[in-house]
Amino acid sequence: MRTLDYGVIGNCKSAALISKTGNIEWFCLPKFDSPSVFAKILDNEIGGSFEINVIGLKTNYQHYEFRTNILITGFICETGQFEIHDFMPRYQTSNTNYYAPPDIIRYIKVISGTCNIIVNFNPKLNYASSSIKYKVTDKYIKAYTVTGDYDSIYMYTDLPKDLIINKKPILIDKDSFLLLSYNQKLLNQDLKRTNLKLQRTKVYWLNWAEKTICFKKYTEEIIRSSLILKLLSYEKTGAILAAVTTSLPETIGEVRNWDYRFCWIRDASMVIKVMAQIGHRHIAHKYLQYIISLLPDKGEKMQIMYGINGEKRLSEKILDHLKGYENSKPVRVGNAAYNQKQNDIFGILMDVIFQHFELYSTSLEFSEDLWTIVRSIVKTVKKNWKKPDRGIWEIRSENRHFTFSKVLCWVAIDRAIKIATILKQTDYIQNWTILKDEIKEDILINGWSEIRQSFVQSYGSEELDSSVLLMETYGFISADDIRFKKTVWAIQEDLEYEGLLFRYRNKDDFGKPQSAFTICSFWLIKSLYKIGQKEEAIEKFNQLLSYSNHLGLFSEDLDFVTKKLLGNFPQAYSHLALIDTAITLSDDQLKNDEQLLASLL
């Protein structure tokens, strides 16, 4: 079984996956959700890729430039050594403007001696559905479609273009560059200009990473995950993507293959909450502006997800001509889940709005916009909390009274009361408190199973679900409450397998789940720590970190037995949970440091 041994580069406009051997195997232009230029990850025959094949290769290595999103792949051949520094340019040009073009730059840096390479430049535009022709000039190689929708890309380089086109050996004896762009360049592209972009991009990422709050434990893991989450943000609107890929299967050979290049309200709200915790508040402000832009009318229905530019229709279609990752069909673009009803999103979004008022000073206009959203959400929750929904896991075939959805309805009202208090809108508090208490009583009666001695997946069910582990995180129940402790123990006993966690074990639309959902394993670790089983939690956390790929990146799922990464990649959900759990496990150390500082002062 393959694993996702890829690095990711990006510039908050688009992103690319680069294999352990330096091949670009997934890239969409000009933005994240555009049709692919390279999609070898979804079809290793026709998908297209951008490869550097080294003649006489002995070994290679790969790592990120320290605290940046610049990926370095090194090659040692029989006669020398060189590196490819892959990046998408991103750097500040003024207080408010960034240079972030739809470009990939491959800077070839000679370390010693010489090597011979063959550049295999094989773009397959429009998800590999169009025939391609090439035009070679003294400035660039242009690849363009001659069937289907018109599209084109440009490659600039100081390597011999005729040798690239004909896939002939090229001697690498000095630094060189390959620049792939969606746009035709207006300025001459040379090594000096390319190196300047590399250095300015390096400075940008180092400065950005420096703003991350450091902890005594797991600092580098937190910073790497925060860098990944930043890459998953779309600068233009503030949207946060769930992942940069589509149709990477949750289980090899099955059909749980979804397009994740969209903004889920739940995922994104969780991301920006944790990003604000570690010092990146600008990303939270941008996201809230994105949300406000989606809700122009007071009565408008909130969807569970949107396109990165605010698109509300995300119609799903299947690309039959692509065989899929490890022959796992279908390959989908679009996501039909946008039509689903999920009541949990209201609580998660309200929690983020509450955090905003707690942490930031804001303008009167922005506060009024948010207050309008708050009151609209409360009305929606009041109308819908007693109704069934599709739940956090997006069950497609039926609506049920999911316990987690009810808990998040409680969260929505609880945070609304806190926001009303901050804004001195006290007239609302009494009625909202009555509603909050009614929801909580309903959950404690109907969400608890005496048989299982645990909170369960849905009302009337005896099935367990890892999502209820978040009841403590959102303040619905305390960690020392025996009902929460029993829930943690029951879920660990029922859903843990080979050291990893199922979301749930019961059948859904596609049978029983076969892989571990990475975020759930993080939730269990955090819950164990909170109920006092700290040594066990730390041991499990360190073990789980070892299941990342060689660059510290996680996808959505893990194979229980082999621990191979599965599902869309890199996954925002997994990395936000990593950060959140790492902060929790660092809590005692932080308290000790604060006490030491107080004693010194």
Descriptive overview:
The chain is an alpha+beta fold and 601 residues long. The protein folds into two domains: 8-209, Distorted Sandwich (Beta-galactosidase, Chain A, domain 5), CATH 2.70.98; 211-600, Alpha/alpha barrel (Glycosyltransferase), CATH 1.50.10. The chain has 16 helices and 28 strands. The protein has an eight-stranded antiparallel sheet with strand order 6-7-8-11-17-15-14-13. The protein has a four-stranded antiparallel sheet with strand order 1-2-3-4. A hairpin with a 2-residue loop joins β7 and β8 (80-87). α7 packs antiparallel against α8 (364-384) and α9 (403-422) runs antiparallel to α10 (429-446). The chain is globular and about 75 Å long. Mean pLDDT is 93; it is low at 594-601.
Structure summarized in a few sentences:
The chain is an alpha+beta fold. It has an eight-stranded antiparallel sheet. It has a four-stranded antiparallel sheet with strand order 1-2-3-4. The relative contact order is 0.10.
Secondary structure elements and pairings:
Blueprint: E1 6-10, E2 15-19, E3 24-28, E4 36-38, E5 49-54, E6 57-64, E7 71-77, E8 80-87, E9 91-92, E10 98-99, E11 103-113, E12 115-122, H1 125-128, E13 132-136, E14 141-145, E15 152-157, H2 161-165, E16 170-172, E17 176-181, H3 191-210, H4 219-231, E18 263-264, H5 265-277, H6 281-294, E19 305-306, E20 317-318, E21 332-333, H7 344-359, H8 364-384, H9 403-422, H10 429-446, E22 448-449, E23 454-455, H11 470-473, H12 482-495, E24 496-497, E25 500-501, E26 516-517, H13 518-530, H14 534-545, E27 557-558, E28 565-566, H15 572-585, H16 587-600
Helix pairs in contact: 4-15, 5-6, 5-7, 5-15, 7-8, 7-9, 8-9, 9-10, 13-14, 13-15, 14-15
